[in-house]
Amino acid sequence: MPIEPAMSRRRPRRAAPEGFEQLALPSTAKARTRFQIPPEVAAREYIKRRSKPSVVPGHVKLTFTVDLPRELAERLSAEAIRESVNIEAVVVKMLAGSRR
User: Fold this and answer.
1) Can you spell out the DSSP letters for the chain?
2) Taking CA atoms, which of 27, 35, 92, 96 is between 20 and 30 Å from 60?
3) What are the residues whose beta carbons fall under 8 Å from the beta carbon of 50, sequence distance 6 or more?
4) Residues 49-69: pLDDT tens digits?
5) What is the pLDDT of residue 77?
6) What are the φ/ψ torsions at residue 6 (nearest 5 degrees)?
7) Could you list the pLDDT tens digit for every one of the 100 residues in the chain?
8) What is d(CA 91, CA 75) in angstroms, rounded to the nearest whole number?
9) How many Å apart are CA 24 and CA 36, to the nearest integer?
10) Is the backbone of residue 33 left (phi > 0), alpha (psi -120 to 50) or beta?
């Protein structure tokens, strides 16, 4: 005895009556006029949302994860140990030096 599927069969569609045809719907997509936000304004808004206040006046805490090769991470760590600072301070120093 064959087992029948639990789902019912699809019913065939009814044919449209003569004289009726499917009308095209008007397009609902609005033509958006996007305006360009200057990068400085976008950066200010991004930092406002993502950062936390720092104990140092005029500074913010911005937390993110960096995926580094182990060798590079060890070199950064060794430099931090030599300078008696944390690894974040070494990275901040490098970033500040690269923008000049």
Assistant:
1) -PPPPSSPPPPPPPPPPTT--PPPPPP--------PPPHHHHHHHHHHHH-EE-SSTT-EE--------HHHHHHHHHHHHHHTS-HHHHHHHHHHHHT-
2) 35
3) 62
4) 999 999 999 999 999 899 999
5) 96
6) -75, -20
7) 666 666 667 777 777 667 777 777 777 766 666 778 899 999 999 999 999 999 999 999 999 899 999 999 999 999 999 999 999 999 999 999 877 5
8) 11
9) 34
10) beta
Token output for 47:
């930092």
Instruction: Provide φ and ψ at 31, rounded to 5°.
Output: -80, 105
Q: Which amino acid makes up residue 94?
A: M
Nearest C-alpha neighbor of 93 from the set 80, 75, 78, 82 = 80
> What's the token pair of residue 90?
């070494």
Q: Which of 66, 52, 56 is nearest to 95 (CA)?
A: 66
End-to-end CA distance of the chain: 82
